[in-house]
What we know:
This protein has helices at residues 2-14, 21-26, 37-50, 54-62, 70-78, 129-133, 138-151, 158-165, 171-180, 197-214, 238-242, 260-268, and strands spanning 96-98, 101-105, 220-226, 251-257, 272-273. It is an alpha+beta fold. It has a domain at 88-282. Strands 1-2-4-3-5 form a five-stranded mixed sheet. The chain is extended, with a radius of gyration of 43 Å.
Amino acid sequence: xxSNKQILKVQAMESTDPPTYVExxxxxxxxxxxxxxxxxxxVQENVQxxxxxxxxxxxxxxxxxxxxxxxxxxxxxxxxxxxxGPDTSxxxxxxxxxxxxxxxxxEKIACCPGQLVGINARVKDxxxxxxxxxxxxxxxxxxxxxxxxxxxKMATSILGCLCIFCFPGFVPQxxxxxxxxxxxxxxxxxxxxxxxxxWYVGLRKWQNDVNFVLNRHDMHLKLITYKPWQKAPKSKLxxxxxxxxxxxxEMSMMVISLTEDETEKLKMQSWDQGVNDTCTSGxxxxx
Length: 287
């Protein structure tokens, strides 16, 4: 009888027709058996060992990672910001410290009219920590540098000087202009394109306004011109500035004294360090 029930069970499972009432009542339901954990582990191991690896290996061999762009990585490293703390060694700004003085490059003469010269544009956002420690704010420093850059738009140029002194009379015209033309003086015609009196007046007033604040903190600022350039102190752009220059090149600097003793020395020092421009055309120069 038991064998007949088993045969009926097999037939019921193989047949596509629904079971009859007798078949359904004779088949006793059995509860699902739970597999223990050891059996599951063995089944998983068998599945892993018997599963084909062709698809996985093909996936790993066909998929290629994009190449690493080393150029972008290098640019990102260069673009890292400078430390937020005070730059006590002046590695990240344009100042060069010599003793108790800060030296800034100041290119006073441009090649052509309209070119912006003077200080480097980065200086306006680089307040020296020595000035910050004495109460000078970043806004004050930025306003000073922006005003100086605006004054520099009136600066002389090599092409302009050649037109005034050398064209069309060349040597005779140069002698006459140097002796009789006060192109650097503060007079009523200083606004003319051939005169630079308005530029020197602006530089003088700017230095007086800045020193009115700096002198309260035992500091001083002065624009100084050295000739020949070998007499000038070192600076950040010293090598680039002297490249191709001869002994006639006038190297100008913006100098800031940081102590009381150094301030007294800087006040007594003339802007003319070897220029010796005693001609009429040099009257009124401050740089």
